[in-house]
Design goal:
29% of the residues lie in helices and 22% in strands.
């Protein structure tokens, strides 16, 4: 399957332009509208979780897994929006019929024209669907984390939480860096001339 990227997509470190999504919001069991500007004004860390389509197979397992970590994400100041190119009405029907989604409480975004999917570089022109893409946008609107892959492998939201924990920590401690597999409470690194070639000592001292 050939996948064509848009010529202009958002890249790490870039500021996201404002966008709008119609959503089905399970918390109110009704429809709503969300904009990036609104979430920025609320000081939210924004997690956009793109997936191919409702009424498919891997997708409900991913949303169910994400729902298990939704409270942790909210405690970190985050908001999750799952996004596919389905309409908000299909989201409603899927949420009501698929038992795996019974604990999903985050807004389910609708992108039928593919505008937001194209902005984040996950729109597949061959199918009209979104690839599996996970993005973290900080409260200033800067894209700080990006993950994209094809349709057949589901994601692990535990790693998403770890990435968000690291990014929120580093926002408060900008001179530090988080090493591989960092978890809250673990030692961080403060890059310096003395650390060059001696990272092992910095981690294990």
């Amino acid at each position: 399957m050939e996948f064509h990227h848009e010529a202009e997509v958002l890249k790490i470190g870039m500021e996201a332009p404002d966008f709008k999504l119609d959503v089905f919001d399970p918390k109110i069991a009704y429809f709503d509208e969300i904009t990036l500007e609104q979430l920025k004004q609320e000081g939210k860390w924004i997690v956009l979780f793109f997936y191919p389509a409702d009424f498919t197979f891997v997708c409900p397992t991913e949303l169910a897994d994400l729902a298990e970590n939704y409270e942790k994400i909210k405690e970190l100041g985050g908001e999750v929006i799952s996004v596919s190119t389905d309409t908000k009405f299909v989201h409603l029907a899927w949420h009501e019929s698929e038992r795996l989604l019974q604990n999903v409480r985050f807004p389910m975004g609708s992108d039928p024209t593919g505008i937001v999917s194209k902005l984040f570089g996950v729109y597949d022109h061959a199918t009209g669907l979104a690839l599996r893409g996970t993005f973290i946008v900080n409260p200033e609107g800067i894209l700080v984390s990006s993950e994209i892959h094809l349709y057949n492998v589901g994601r692990n939201s535990d790693e998403l939480v770890r990435k968000l924990q690291a990014n929120t920590y580093l926002a408060a401690h900008p001179v530090e860096a988080c090493p591989a597999k960092w978890q809250p409470g673990d030692k961080t690194l403060t890059p310096s001339k003395e650390m060059v070639g001696h990272v092992y000592e910095a981690i294990h001292e």
